[in-house]
C-alpha cells in the first residue's frame, strides 16, 4: 500500500461522512474517507455542523478491525450515545481535542465561471459540492474580478460575472456547512458549483469565517 504523505497524517483529523448506518447489536456507524489526520479507538470526535461529540468505540476497514486509521482509508467506526438520525452525509468528524471542525457562516473563495448562459450577479445561489456536502450557497458579494491566468486583480466589486471570468467572492451557505481553507485542509477547500444540471463554476476556499456559535470563532486567514 502507498504510504500517505506525512503532511496529511500530521494535520488534525478531518473525516467527511459519506453515510451513517444503524447496525443491530453494534449501534451507530458513520462511514467515510479520512482526508487528514488519524483516527483511533477511544478518541472523542466532534461532528460539524451537527455540533455533537462522541467517543469512538471501534474502527473497521474491509471488515477488519483497526487500531489506527490513516488518510486515504475508507472506514466505518462505531460511536457511543449518538442516534443515527443526528448525523448526515456531509457532516465532518474531527478530533475534539485538536482544532475540531466547525461550521462556517461565510467563506471567501476564488472561483472560475465555466459555463453559465447568462450573467451572474450577487445573490446567485447554485448548489456547492464540497467533499461529501451538497449545500446551496449564495454569492453574497462579488469582491474582485481576476485575470484567470495570472490571478492579478482586474476590477473591484464587479457588477456581473460571465463564463470564463475568474473572481474572488464571499459565499454564504443556506444551511449549516463545514468547509475549510484550501491552504489548511485541501480536500475540504475545493468545490464545484452546480446549476442548470451542469457545473457552472469551480473554486478554492481562501478563508473561512467560523460560526460564532462554534468554540473556535476565529477567521482563518491564508496568505494570498
From TrEMBL:
Matches recorded under SUPFAM superfamilies:
EF-Tu/eEF-1alpha/eIF2-gamma C-terminal domain, Translation proteins
Task: List the GO molecular function terms.
Answer: GTP binding; translation elongation factor activity
User: What Gene Ontology cellular component terms go with this record?
Assistant: cytoplasm
Ranges of residues in domain Translation elongation factor EFTu-like: 27-92
Q: What is its main location?
A: cytoplasm
Highest taxon, organism lineage: Eukaryota
What reaction does this catalyse? Answer: GTP + H2O = GDP + phosphate + H(+)
UniProt domain GTP-eEF1A C-terminal: residue ranges: 106-206
Which compartment or compartments is the protein found in? Cytoplasm
UniProt keyword terms in alphabetical order: Cytoplasm, Elongation factor, GTP-binding, Nucleotide-binding, Protein biosynthesis
Name the family the entry cites. Belongs to the TRAFAC class translation factor GTPase superfamily. Classic translation factor GTPase family. EF-Tu/EF-1A subfamily.
In terms of PANTHER family, this protein maps to: ELONGATION FACTOR 1 ALPHA, TR-TYPE G DOMAIN-CONTAINING PROTEIN
Function, in words: Translation elongation factor that catalyzes the GTP-dependent binding of aminoacyl-tRNA (aa-tRNA) to the A-site of ribosomes during the elongation phase of protein synthesis. Base pairing between the mRNA codon and the aa-tRNA anticodon promotes GTP hydrolysis, releasing the aa-tRNA from EEF1A1 and allowing its accommodation into the ribosome. The growing protein chain is subsequently transferred from the P-site peptidyl tRNA to the A-site aa-tRNA, extending it by one amino acid through ribosome-catalyzed peptide bond formation.
User: Which protein is depicted?
Assistant: 42Sp50
Q: Which organism is it from?
A: Nothobranchius korthausae
The record lists the lineage as: Eukaryota, Metazoa, Chordata, Craniata, Vertebrata
Amino acid at each position: 500500500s502507498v504510504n500517505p504523505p506525512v503532511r496529511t497524517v500530521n494535520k488534525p483529523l478531518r473525516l467527511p461522512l459519506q453515510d451513517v448506518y444503524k447496525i443491530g447489536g453494534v449501534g451507530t456507524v458513520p462511514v467515510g474517507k479520512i482526508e487528514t489526520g488519524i483516527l483511533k479507538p477511544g478518541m472523542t470526535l466532534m461532528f460539524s455542523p451537527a455540533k455533537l461529540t462522541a467517543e469512538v468505540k471501534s474502527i473497521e476497514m474491509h471488515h477488519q478491525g483497526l487500531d489506527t486509521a490513516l488518510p486515504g482509508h475508507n472506514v466505518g467506526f462505531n460511536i457511543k450515545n449518538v442516534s443515527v438520525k443526528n448525523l448526515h452525509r456531509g457532516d465532518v468528524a474531527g478530533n475534539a481535542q485538536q482544532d475540531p471542525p466547525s461550521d462556517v457562516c461565510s467563506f471567501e473563495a476564488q472561483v472560475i465561471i465555466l459555463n453559465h448562459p447568462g450573467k451572474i450577479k450577487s445573490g446567485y445561489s447554485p448548489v456547492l459540492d464540497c467533499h461529501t456536502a451538497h449545500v446551496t450557497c449564495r454569492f453574497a458579494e462579488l469582491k474582485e474580478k481576476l485575470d484567470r491566468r495570472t490571478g492579478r486583480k482586474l476590477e473591484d466589486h464587479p457588477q456581473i460575472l460571465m463564463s470564463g471570468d475568474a473572481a474572488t467572492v464571499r459565499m454564504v451557505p443556506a444551511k449549516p456547512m463545514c468547509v475549510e481553507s484550501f491552504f489548511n485542509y485541501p480536500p475540504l477547500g475545493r468545490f464545484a458549483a452546480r446549476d442548470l444540471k451542469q457545473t457552472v463554476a469551480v473554486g478554492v476556499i481562501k478563508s473561512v469565517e467560523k460560526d460564532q456559535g462554534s468554540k473556535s470563532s476565529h477567521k482563518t486567514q491564508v496568505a494570498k
